[in-house]
């Protein structure tokens, strides 16, 4: 359980929203909704209390130059987050690449990083930048590339209601900011060209 999470306050707020839209929060179908929403929010926003530098620091491995390889890519990392503008979910996949410097990171730690950072209210553009920054800060690689492809509830269920659209964002650092190197990494990911 997170240290900042205030379950009674969330439950009271959800009951107030239900009343504000003109429904009865005490009716049988809604009576447990405030608790269910609080359960979901506790999971959705669990990343607010994660110390990303501590998370990454436990999995760094020093490596000799001949052991590093040219590029490390972890593809198709599923994530879910909540857009801070409408508090509606967005879900997608992250592809994270880095060019090792003097150390490598345990491959399982990269999906953990994506999950921790995605478990906060934010925008997709910021999520990509946050992942790139955290990896850059922790591993000090020669380059970082993060490609996110997500479907947003605020686009598919309200307003324009574009049910088949997705949003692709790219964040890069170091050598993977070079257009040719970035294009090569994106080709290996198998995603859109940027």
The CATH topology of the largest domain, please? GTP Cyclohydrolase I, domain 2
Strand segment count: 7
User: What is the arithmetic mean of pLDDT?
Assistant: 91
Largest sheet: 5 strands, mixed
Terminal CA distance reads 39 Å
Provide the succession of SSEs.
Answer: HHHEEEEHEHEHEH
- Radius of gyration equals 20 Å
Please state the overall shape, judged from the principal axes of the Cα atoms. Answer: elongated
Structure overview:
- This protein is of the alpha+beta class and 194 residues long.
- It has two domains: 7-44, Orthogonal Bundle (GTP Cyclohydrolase I, Chain A, domain 1), CATH 1.10.286.10; 59-189, GTP cyclohydrolase I, C-terminal domain/NADPH-dependent 7-cyano-7-deazaguanine reductase, N-terminal domain (GTP Cyclohydrolase I, domain 2).
- The chain is built from seven helices and seven strands; from the N terminus they run αααββββαβαβαβα.
- The protein has helices spanning 7-20, 33-44, 52-57, 109-118, 124-139, 153-156, 179-189, and strands at 60-62, 72-83, 89-99, 103-105, 121-122, 143-152, 167-174.
- The strands form two sheets. It has a five-stranded mixed sheet with strand order 5-2-3-6-7, sandwiched between helices. The chain has a two-stranded antiparallel sheet with strand order 1-4.
- It is elongated.
């Amino acid at each position: 359980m997170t240290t900042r999470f205030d379950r009674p306050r969330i439950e009271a707020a959800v009951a107030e929203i239900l009343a504000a839209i003109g429904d009865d929060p005490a009716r049988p179908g809604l009576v447990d909704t405030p608790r269910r929403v609080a359960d979901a929010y506790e999971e959705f926003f669990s990343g607010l209390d994660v110390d990303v530098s501590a998370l990454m620091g436990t999995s760094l491995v020093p490596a000799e130059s001949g052991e590093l390889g040219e590029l490390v890519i972890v593809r198709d990392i599923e994530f879910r987050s909540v857009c801070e503008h409408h508090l509606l979910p967005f879900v997608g996949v992250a592809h994270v690449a880095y060019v090792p410097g003097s150390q490598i990171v345990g491959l399982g730690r990269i999906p953990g990083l994506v999950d921790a950072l995605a478990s906060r209210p934010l925008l997709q553009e910021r999520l990509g930048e946050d992942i790139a920054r955290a990896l850059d800060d922790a591993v000090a690689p020669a380059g970082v590339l993060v490609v996110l492809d997500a479907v947003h509830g605020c686009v598919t269920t309200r307003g324009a209601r574009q049910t088949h659209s997705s949003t692709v964002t790219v964040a890069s650092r170091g050598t993977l900011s070079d257009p040719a190197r970035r294009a090569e990494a994106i080709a290996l990911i198998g995603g859109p060209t940027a």
